[in-house]
């Protein structure tokens, strides 16, 4: 018996120009949606047919607004077709704000309204509001962003559309060697070069922090244990604050000289400390650098 396909989750993002659609589409990307900005409504059925045939994309967010106004009168009919399809769970998100706030935002960014390129800003806003009225009436979720900061809008979107079974926030813990440069994507960098270096122990020199002998040598040191407890406690204290601020991932980079002994051992232990609390990925950027150098020489 053929396995029944689960319907694709579709969110149509629309609303007033300047009401926060850019923040919205970035938020949906963080939520794992395949996102397309400025999708002409006339192309949605063909696009959906291709997605349905591929079976690889399960969550899609499309921004549909008056930049594609030549096709806009088709949108309600197309959405009705999608909503009646068994292969789609369609939702319409409409972002709005007061006229006063929209004017303020346009003045601040110095951008031209798409319906008032050569006329008065308020005329463009009023015309857009009238054109979007049918879509707003059709919307399942309406968010007034007048008094919302970008972070607060993200929080509202996460609360409405996040799959609660899939934690959004995750940790990246990596080791690296300072001699090869700082990781460009690190949020927190910690230096463990103050600890005794296994490189100078002949039997450990050609091993790494992935080997038990090196790991035990690093972590059995009283200085290492004391530092680990303080660093780990600090990370556990501040991690919920990153989550509250809307961070979707955090990269903790731990460095030693060559990125093969001390930093590797510490990254392993820090990563293990957070298992069960957040999704954690532990990587070791430079652990094989010396081997590569030897092979090239």
Question: What report would you give on this structure?
Answer:
GTP binds at residues 65-68. InterPro entries: P-loop_NTPase, RapZ-like, RapZ-like_N, RapZ_C. It comes from Lacticaseibacillus pabuli. The structure is a single chain. Helix 7 packs across helix 9. Strand 2, helix 2 and strand 3 (59-63) form a beta-alpha-beta unit. This protein is elongated. It has ten helices and nine strands. The chain has two domains: 8-161, P-loop containing nucleotide triphosphate hydrolases (Rossmann fold); 170-296, no CATH class. The strands form two sheets. It has a five-stranded parallel β-sheet with strand order 2-3-1-4-5, with helices on both faces. A four-stranded parallel β-sheet has the order 7-8-6-9, covered by helices on one side. By secondary structure, it is an alpha/beta fold.
Structural class: alpha/beta
Rg (CA only): 26 Å
With strands numbered from the N-terminus, the spatial order across the biggest sheet is 2-3-1-4-5
Strand fraction equals 15-25%
- Treating each run of at least 4 consecutive H or I residues as one helix, how many helices? 10
Proportion in helices: 40-55%
The name of the CATH architecture of the largest domain is: 3-Layer(aba) Sandwich
Mean pLDDT across all amino acids: 84
Order of helices and strands: EHEHEHEHHEHEEHHEHEH
Q: How far apart, in Å, are the first and last alpha carbons?
A: 58 Å
Oligomer: single chain
Low-confidence stretches: 292-297
SS elements, strand count:
9
Global morphology = elongated
CATH class of the largest domain: Alpha Beta
Q: What's the main sheet like?
A: 5 strands, parallel
> So, the CATH homologous superfamily of the largest domain?
P-loop containing nucleotide triphosphate hydrolases
Q: Number of domains in the coordinates?
A: 2
CATH fold-level topology of the largest domain: Rossmann fold
């Amino acid at each position: 018996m053929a396995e029944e396909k689960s319907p694709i989750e579709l969110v149509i993002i629309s609303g007033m120009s300047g009401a926060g659609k850019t923040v919205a589409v970035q938020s949906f990307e963080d939520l794992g949606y395949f996102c397309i900005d400025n999708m002409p409504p006339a192309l949605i059925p063909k696009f959906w047919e291709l997605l349905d045939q591929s079976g690889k994309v399960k969550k899609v967010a499309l921004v549909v607004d008056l930049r594609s106004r030549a096709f806009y009168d088709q949108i309600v009919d197309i959405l009705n077709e999608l909503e009646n399809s068994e292969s789609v769970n369609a939702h319409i998100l409409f972002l709005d704000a007061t006229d006063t706030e929209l004017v303020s935002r346009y003045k601040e960014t110095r951008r031209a309204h798409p319906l008032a390129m050569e006329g008065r800003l308020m005329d463009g806003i009023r015309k857009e509001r009238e054109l979007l009225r049918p879509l707003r009436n059709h919307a399942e979720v309406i968010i007034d962003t007048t008094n919302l900061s970008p972070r607060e809008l993200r929080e509202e979107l996460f609360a409405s559309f996040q799959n609660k079974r899939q934690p959004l926030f995750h940790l990246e813990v990596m080791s690296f060697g300072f001699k090869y440069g700082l990781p460009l994507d690190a949020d927190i960098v910690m230096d463990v070069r103050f600890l005794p270096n296994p490189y100078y122990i002949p039997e450990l020199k050609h091993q790494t922090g992935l080997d038990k002998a090196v790991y035990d040598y690093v972590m059995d040191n009283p200085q290492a244990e004391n530092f680990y407890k303080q660093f780990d406690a600090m990370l556990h204290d501040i991690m919920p604050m990153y989550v509250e601020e809307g961070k979707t991932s955090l990269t903790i980079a731990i460095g030693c000289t060559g990125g093969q002994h001390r930093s590797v051992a510490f990254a392993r232990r820090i990563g293990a400390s957070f298992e069960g609390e957040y999704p954690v990925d532990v990587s070791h950027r430079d652990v094989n650098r010396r081997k590569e150098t030897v092979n090239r020489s």
